[in-house]
Write a structure and sequence with these properties.
The chain is mainly α. 60% of the residues lie in helices and 3% in strands. The radius of gyration is 36 Å and the shape is flat.
């Protein structure tokens, strides 16, 4: 699988570096597909493809030199992504989704109705406090769950229809088919 991808990538690089080689075959494909002799001007007439080759080769050399230079520079010691300059961060110093979304939750509090437990930290030397906030899903918790629970309560009154006898189920199906046939005829 890698060999096939390598061949295709070399073909793409070759076409990019020496596009003159592909101009005539592409012109023949265009004339064959159009059904007439050369409807569009030749690629050679549109762009000077030899100049693209002259420009591509030095750019390729410069790119190779930059790649080698970047690979040779020593890398610094890896640091954690969200260290933020702290020497010894711990779990209590982490940013949470609540801290990022706090402004949005406060601004949309009239719709989201956040549940907050604990108080805000106040003063210069505050005592340790616990703070917890939770934003319930407005659609699921306020619309879908109560609606589905209500439907389940109402439909629980129809459980007597499920007596567990196969003959009664067949009678339900037969009556449904009969009603549908009458409805189609009328």
């Amino acid at each position: 699988m890698l060999a096939a991808m390598g061949i295709l990538s070399l073909a793409c690089a070759g076409i990019g570096l020496v596009p003159v080689l592909m101009a005539k075959p592409l012109d023949r494909v265009v004339s064959t597909l159009s059904g007439t002799e050369q409807v569009l001007p030749s690629l050679d007439n549109l762009v000077n493809l030899s100049w693209l080759t002259v420009l591509a080769i030095p750019l390729l050399v410069v790119g190779f030199i930059l790649w080698k230079w970047a690979a040779a520079t020593p890398r610094g010691k890896e640091q954690p992504t969200w260290g933020c300059g702290y020497l010894a961060p711990n779990a209590r110093m982490q940013y949470t989704a609540s801290s990022f979304a706090d402004g949005l939750v406060q601004g949309m509090g009239w719709v989201l109705w956040p549940k907050i437990q604990g108080g805000r930290v106040r003063g210069f030397f505050p005592f340790p406090r616990r703070f917890q906030s939770h934003v319930p899903d407005p659609v699921l918790d306020r619309v879908a769950d109560p609606g589905l629970n209500g439907a389940a309560f109402l439909l629980s009154g129809l459980r007597f229809l499920q007596a567990g006898h196969m003959s009664i189920y067949l009678m339900y199906i037969l009556l449904t088919l009969l009603v549908l046939l009458i409805w189609m005829v009328v």
